[in-house]
Amino acid sequence: MNEANVLESAVKPGPVDLRSANRREELKTDHSKTDGYFNLISYIVSNAISGEIMAIENYSEMVPLMPSTDDKIETVKQAHEESKHILMLASLGKRHDYVVMREIVEPQWFNIRRHFSTAVANKDLPACLIIQDLMTETMAIVLYRTLQRQGDPDTAILAGNILKDELEHLDIGLARIRSLLAEDPEGVNEALKWAHHRVMPELFSMVSTSCHFLCDRLNIDCGALSLGDLKTDIDQIRVEALDAYIETLDKADFNPVVTAQLIESMQSYGGTPAMAGSLAN
Ligand SMILES: [Fe+2]
Ligand SMILES: [Fe+2]
Fold it and tell me: Rounded to the nearest whole angstrom, what is the distance from the C-alpha of residue 126 to the centroid of ligand 2?
């Protein structure tokens, strides 16, 4: 299916698609997936699409700050890959007969966009790369890894395909940040502090099944969502997210004194109970 067709099939309301209803019934019977599972996936996929939309906007806004033409081309390519992720996720919802939002709903995404735009206005390329290439990509990797590991077969395959791109985006970001750190260690570590306190609380607050508006928009019962339907829980994902964030900061070669302080600060906004507790000891 070419991209135009993917888009068409993802957006076209059309009559009730019997194949989608059948596929959902197959997953319910063959893989013990309940309506609760599909509601949870509808919620997660919708929020993932929001993150992908934010990523397109961030990468696009960052292009003029990229130093070389090759860097600009690479950044546009990243934005394009995020756009394909939206279409893939939306078509999964259609195939499994659940609703997905195709716009940003939760306020945290708008807040991160605002901070990113501030960094662009300040011509602060390190802060832009840290917000999008490192922080957002790291959280995307945790999300898609979870869906790959715990989702139904269709969701797992799709999440695995998106995950490959996100891992590549993170690697691109790590290489970019390492070279900027080599030029200006103090400035780039300062950019990390600035971005961390603004963006990480927003990203971590979304590792949750309680939302501001999303469930209302999807017409699902917020209180009934349970990560048990994905055979995981919030604490486990938060620990994984914190571990992944620490690994990203280590790989980027930031100053360990700076990163230790930042990680410790995460307990103040409910980073991860288990890890934050042990770090504080
Ligand atoms: Fe993506
Ligand atoms: Fe990405």
Answer: 17
